[in-house]
Design brief:
Layout lengths: L2 H4 L15 H10 L14 H12 L3 E5 L6 H5 E6 L2 E6 L1 H8 L2 E5 L6 H4 L3 H4 L13
Parallel strand pairs: 1-4
Antiparallel strand pairs: 2-3
């Protein structure tokens, strides 16, 4: 595991008290790499549950706070100019996919549809994250 991704590991066990069989269900879905969406009212423990599962599975957790101003490039990444020229900078979704991390899109319903459409091929049967090179 690279040093850059280690920053996303949860070192201490988060407090989480299971209510039913959600831990086993998450582990079963995770074992077959099934994407999942957690739904519930504010404050019910969705974020804490994901933190706990990332700790339990020893997987990095990359959390993205979604909002209506977020673009697809904010999720996937973009080309940047620096002193050496043009370079690609991964976004949080690409970083998670490259390193096998859990990517938690917090409040994903707040994101625009033209932004969230980039996750479709990653979460369907294709399991890919297309990164197009713009302008050659």
């Amino acid at each position: 595991m690279s040093e850059a991704i280690k920053q996303y590991l949860i070192k201490d066990q988060p407090y989480y008290h299971p209510v039913a069989d959600e831990v086993a269900l998450y582990e079963a879905a995770y074992s077959v790499r099934m994407p999942m969406m957690l739904k519930g009212p504010t404050g019910c423990g969705k974020t804490r549950f994901i933190e706990y599962m990332a700790w339990k599975l020893k997987k990095p957790l990359i959390t993205v706070a979604c909002n209506e101003d977020m673009t697809a490039s904010d999720l996937v990444g973009r080309f940047l100019l620096d002193a050496q020229g043009t370079r690609w900078q991964d976004g949080p979704l690409t970083t998670a996919a490259r390193h096998g991390a859990i990517c938690y899109l917090d409040e994903v319903v707040e994101a625009r549809q033209d932004t969230t459409v980039v996750i479709h091929p990653l979460t369907d049967n294709r399991r890919i994250l297309p990164l197009e090179k713009k302008g050659s």
